[in-house]
Write a structure and sequence with these properties.
about 475 residues; alpha/beta; Rossmann fold; five-stranded parallel sheet; flat; disordered N terminus
Length: about 475
Amino acid sequence: MERYSHYANSYRLILPVADALIIFGTFRLACFKLLGNWSFDGVYPLYFAVFVLLWWILSGHYVNVYRVDRLMPYKEKLLNLIQTFLMHAAILMSGALLLKVYWLPSSYLLVMYSFILSGVVLGRLLMAFLQRTYRKHLARPHSKFVIIGASSSGQELHRFLTTHDPVGNQFRGFFTDEPAPAHLASLVRGTVADLKAYCQQEQIDEIYFALPLDQRELMTELAQFADDHFVSFRIIPDFQGTVRKDVNVFYYNHLPILTIRQAPLAFRPNQVMKRIFDIAFSGIVILGVFPFILPILAIIIKLDSPGPVFFKQLRPGKRNQLFPCYKLRTMRSNHGKTELQATKSDARITKVGSFLRKTSLDELPQFFNVMLGQMSVVGPRPNMVSQLEEYSKHIHTYPMRHAVTPGITGYAQVNGYRGETRAPQAMEKRVEYDLKYVENWSFWLDMKIIAQTVLNMVRGEKNAY
């Protein structure tokens, strides 16, 4: 493992130097292509220095194109390079325009960027070819290793070492007391009790411990065995097995921080992005749609049954903070059962209200809630206070859906889980999809949910009543 780290660090030094040489060559080549000579005089050296410095900062610290591990697909590496070039060009042009400095002709820049992109990509391919050839024909065996435990951490380590250096690191097998996955069955050499005899017989160099970290006595025993027989003993933390839940690991200056659940919307940039979209989208709806639709709907509601046009009810929002949630009135105003969930063929629902519910038009006023920051366009639907109290007692994950701002539409709703929740599994499935949204949020997921919501509005939803 140390050998690979040294090898990777060497490449991180080689690649920036290679990039600088490639960029220097393309500057000269661009001069020859456009000017007919190889001169590199005047301000061009200054542009070259600025270009290389900015490239190094962006590529090394932003998209990390100097990663050399083979576990990163070539497609991802290429996309990272293209992303770096686009950002590089945008920053360089913006800086030139902002500072009002003399700049290179656009034709020169186009040729230069084309040459640099081609040169860097070809350079990466050449590096990969040389790296593969060395591993295949010249690398010498370095160590024989075994892995204790076939956990996800153990499997990931096996993939990593056998992919990076299958010649230098010879994998000899798993040792586990638990049933191994079917695709690993042929690689299991025995139980943990068989490990010591096998290591002595096969002269194993390295033992990797990939079991839950609560097995302290076993770790101490194996560490002592390794010391006595000149074997390296290494621990691969199996955090998921330790806490019996999915774990995400983040690093703060090399300090590992464990989180039990993913929470993309806990990061400030994602919150800002989502809020900007909410304001823009709700602003378009309020200014572009409301003046034409709301007056018509208000007249129809008043003609259909006596009572107010709007309905307001306190709902629990983010962190269970109550807020007034607005809707168009869809029920008779004198039923006196505002905390009772609507059911199929509910006598309280008016004829117009039934149409509004099936098309989700009754939710339109909630765009005002979005503008006020009480709701988002997309998020877990805000249930009634009585539902919060009831379901929190029976579904232990229910409060987690309130970790984010509630939405007008949600992941559960577009997957068919809306309407009545009296069936035993109805609310469990709704909460399950809400948590999938909370843990896997992305801007594109929001766009997908919005598109599906519009499609459902056009088709009408059978569970909306």
